[in-house]
Design a protein that fits this description.
seven-stranded mixed beta sheet; 12 helices; Helicase, Ruva Protein, domain 3; 278 residues; Rossmann fold; 2 domains
């Protein structure tokens, strides 16, 4: 265990190690893992959360990019039969491979994965987009993120933080901020507050649904619509949809992107898909 104290956080991996026992307890309580569930921890670090998860989960896979942390984690947890470690980049990791792995659980949640992680600030947004590609095999996600990112994930239309990330995440998941985590809970302490967010993939879509589940097209429409936030849809979408086409969706083309509901973005996306395919 001597190695544990010697390892220092590395900026290139965006490492901030959680150490506050009260915050850890709140996270574990929010996750409420059971022996019938298959959990995956992204970026376990020194194992502050891992040591609790491994005792509650039926199976626990951890994904760690920093190779110097691998022997520390192996020393602490390799004796647990339900523990597996993957020295890999979560941005490139095939999460589906875990369900096909030997020893994968056939549980009440349909063998889906529950994801947990203190995500590095520098890759949090692209990693969330990567994980959204896997929502069909995910039961839920509990992540520690920069508070600003959590605000974007959970933002409502009309908010200054509402944007493409809000739309993609909330179309696929129910997003809820659980609680704030102050800088002092980490070593080293970051310069900003963090927050815990719970993302639960929707089992059934409510309201307007995408044609052909075209989330890539939804992302493209949202990116274009928010490309210049102060400009109208007529200006930002003119290379994709005409003002007349926007009106076909019962949307005033003089509106700004931040005023549109997710259902309205879906309607614009479906019209775009139909236009391209016709």
């Amino acid at each position: 265990m001597a190695k544990l104290s010697k390892h220092k956080a590395r900026k290139r991996f965006g490492q901030n190690f959680l150490h506050d026992p009260n915050i850890i307890e709140r996270i574990i309580a929010a996750i409420a893992a059971t022996k019938e569930q298959h959990l995956v921890e992204i970026g376990p670090g020194k194992g502050a959360i891992t040591e609790h998860l491994v005792n509650h989960a039926g199976k626990l896979d951890v994904i760690e990019l920093d190779r110097d942390l691998i022997p520390i984690l192996e020393e602490r947890f390799s004796a647990y039969e339900n523990f597996s470690i993957h020295s890999n980049d979560a941005l490139k990791f095939d999460f589906g491979s875990l369900l096909n792995a030997e020893g994968s659980l056939s549980s009440a949640n349909g063998s889906k994965l529950r994801l947990v992680g203190n995500l590095p600030y520098n890759i949090s947004t692209p990693l969330i987009f990567h994980l959204l590609e896997n929502v069909a095999i995910i039961d839920d996600m509990h992540f520690m993120l920069q508070k600003e990112v959590v605000e974007r994930l959970t933002a409502a239309p009309g908010s200054k933080t509402y944007g493409r990330l809000s739309i993609l995440v909330q179309y696929l998941c129910h997003a809820e901020q659980l609680f704030i985590v102050p800088p002092g809970a980490f070593n080293p302490a970051p310069k900003v507050d963090s927050a815990i967010v719970q993302l639960t993939p929707r089992k059934e879509m409510s309201g307007t649904q995408l044609i052909n589940a075209s989330t890539d097209n939804l992302s493209d429409i949202a990116r274009a619509a928010f490309s210049q936030r102060r400009k109208t849809l007529r200006n930002n979408l003119k290379k994709i949809l005409t003002a007349e086409q926007i009106e076909q969706c019962d949307i005033d083309p003089s509106r700004r992107a931040e005023t549109l509901s997710i259902s309205e973005f879906v309607s614009l996306t479906n019209l775009y898909v139909q236009t391209v395919e016709s």
